[in-house]
Amino acid sequence: MTETKKAVILWFRKDLRLSDNRALAAAIDHGGPIIPVYIRENDGDSSGALGSAQAWWLYHSLDALSTALDRLGSRLVLASGSPDAVLERLVKDTGADAVFWNRRYDPDGMKADTDLKSDLREGGLIVESFAGHLLHEPSKLKTKTGGPYRVYTPFWRAIEGGEEPADPLSAPSKLASPPRWPKSDVLKSWNLLPSKPNWAVEFSDIWTPGESGAQENLQYFIDDALKGYEEGRDIPAKTATSMLSPHLAMGEISPAQVWDATRDLSSNIASNDLSRFRKEIVWREFCYHLLFHFPELDEKNWNSNFDAFEWRTDTAKFKAWTKGMTGYPIVDAGMRQLWRHGVMHNRVRMITASFLIKHLLIDWRKGEKWFRDTLVDADPASNAANWQWVAGSGADASPFFRIFNPILQGEKFDPDGDYVKTFVPELEKLDKKFIHKPFDAPKDMLQKAGVDLGKTYPKPLVDHSEARQRALAAYSDIKKGE
To answer: What is the CATH number of domain 7-132?
Structure first.
């Protein structure tokens, strides 16, 4: 007689999918019953939601994963607490002899996983971790001198010219279940959804969390939006981006699956569109590469020269920025889109971030924390790296003296004001000539459009030209100290 295989615990984190899941594939190969578990750890843990908006996403993503597992004859066990205590209890309850998971790459998460793996192995368990959240392993990809990459272009070339990612794995058609399931938390008891007020009321109009939603978004993008991507990606009023970032953030789709979907498209898609999109995938990789090698990316300036920068503390102006009440329509439209939909167009993210940092001289870290709480695609690497990029303090960053003019940015990328009118409806009747600068519109035109500056729509928090000069002067002060 052959010995019955013991159960394996499959620990889901930010890999909430059944396809191209290496840990799941290894659990199947292990041969015994599989016990899928998701552990809600302490607040602020990187394996869960990073903020309130992503908590909404996590709820629906776990619900979708649970349904998908049910179809395979399995189920998702939900547990709260520290992973070591939860896994110890599950091993005792189920007799499992192995624990598998997919790797995470944030510093705190990596340290916790290393310590946990050691403790579990000392207890006689088989413990294995697998790749899948990135196309590359940050510990292995190095420059010719043996160090980490600090500039994006050579990093892109290393990824583009390296080995092609392995073909994605298919989802299983069934999973072996244990004779008795351990106790599970009830998802609703985790209180992940907002209630009073329900500020996420419009989220479901835009998003479908879960692996199926991710695959649908990817297919729509490949079929309908990738063509013309290089130009269309900068127009916030168009649906011209992939909308995959929250799915990638929660691991509902792997970057290898996205990369694979862009193979063999050169006959139908212009090379510049295809290359531009792949570069965006690799930019995410670069952000994780930076975080891996600079663990304090969300707290400390990559370029220490910026440590001497004199930031301003202005609670009222910061609050006006968060509410989309700065008096600059393209900025306000972006901030209101963020609040209503949990997302903001990439071009507008740069404009709004630049405005906070350079027009208001408010520390980029305050903006990073706001985005972390309000974005459904909140990501520890991309969020921090992109804010530092705009601030000029990051790796391969935009120079600080590159100060976006919110008027010109609006006129260039939202020429008819369609984006502004969607999210700043109090300006929808204003002539497009002044939609991005209502403060310059004639009084009779404002009156006809029903706009009363300072009452129905705010006057600018700062004058652009004056703010620009003030920012350059502040930057000049730290340059003198170099």
So the answer is: 3.40.50.620
Judge whether 241 is annotated as a binding position: yes
Whole-model pTM: value is 0.96
* 134 annotated as ligand-binding: no
Catalytic residue among 101, 302, 387, 389: 387
Give the tens place of pLDDT for each residue, 87-137. Answer: 999 999 999 999 999 999 998 899 999 999 999 999 999 999 999 999 999
Per-domain residue ranges for the chain? 7-132, 134-167+211-293, 304-481
Catalytic annotation, pick one of 128, 346, 405, 428: 346
Is 283 part of the annotated catalytic residue set?
Answer: yes
Answer yes or no: is 404 a known binding residue. Answer: no
pLDDT tens by residue, 331-366: 999 999 999 999 999 999 999 999 999 999 999 999
Annotated active-site residue 311? The verdict is: yes
Residue 378 counted as an annotated binding residue: yes
Cβ-Cβ contacts under 8 Å for 197 (sequence gap 6 or more):
none
Answer yes or no: 364 catalytic.
yes
Q: Which amino acid is present at 478?
A: I
CATH of 134-167+211-293, one of 1.20.58.1610, 1.25.40.80, 3.90.700.10, 3.20.20.70: 1.25.40.80
Name which of 13-17, 162-166, 175-179, 273-277 the model is least confident about. 162-166
Catalytic one of 216, 280, 303, 428: 280
101 is an active site residue: no
